[in-house]
UniProtKB/TrEMBL annotation:
SMART domains: FCD, HTH_GNTR. InterPro entries: GntR_C (IPR011711), TF_FadR/GntR_C (IPR008920), Tscrpt_reg_HTH_GntR (IPR000524), WH-like_DNA-bd_sf (IPR036388), WH_DNA-bd_sf (IPR036390). Keywords: DNA-binding, Transcription, Transcription regulation. This is GntR family transcriptional regulator. It holds the Pfam family FCD. SUPFAM superfamilies: GntR ligand-binding domain-like, Winged helix' DNA-binding domain. Residues 10-77 form the HTH gntR-type domain. It comes from the Bacteria.
Amino acid sequence: MDILPDTTAETVGDSAYRRIRTDLIFGKLTPGQKLKLERMSSAYGTSISTLRETLNRLCSEGLVVAEGQRGFEVAPISAAEFQEIAELRELLEGHMIEKSFAAGDLDWEAHIVSAHHKLAAMERMLLSGERSDAESWKQCDFQFHRALVAACGSKVLLDAHAAVYDRYLRYQMIAVVFRGEMAAAEHRELKELALKRDAKGANKVLHTHIHDCVTHALRNSDWLKPVTAKDVQREPRKKAKAS
């Protein structure tokens, strides 16, 4: 995840890629939407040829789908895919937590405390009813989870985790998921368990954190429908909203 990167030496193509990718992840380009090249070329300030390269790159990340000769569209979403992505995130992050908690030093601990401080401030804003800055909130959320696993010692794992997190985040933003104080409490507990180097306890909290997010999204989002009645206890359908 690199939602707010340093763009000092960014090319036109890099800028278009970053902006389109951000709009896909944060739901500004909606699932199934046709991506008209002429319109997008004007909106993102890039040539048709560069735009094609960008969209093909995003196809490889699972965020865009190529329709053969008919062009491109935003990748669809489904409850089944969200559950698969969530399981992959838990598998990766849980493994990385074990490695990171064993190897982390005092600087690692300080980074976790700092990242949690920023996230907690954003969560207090959300709990007070201020919901306008979703990108900053989720940037802080990612930075906290990234801090937990930062000492895992593997760039391959960190890159894989970032890619999976972005696909997970796309579902969160489409479903407008904020579970309120429960999520904030889980983040506090993860911070404390990291400082105690309790990887087993942290992985239990992480399981709840991810599983309950998926359940909440399936229950409350008009975009997502459970695969079967067993996937999530059915509730009356209502318009998706943050809770």
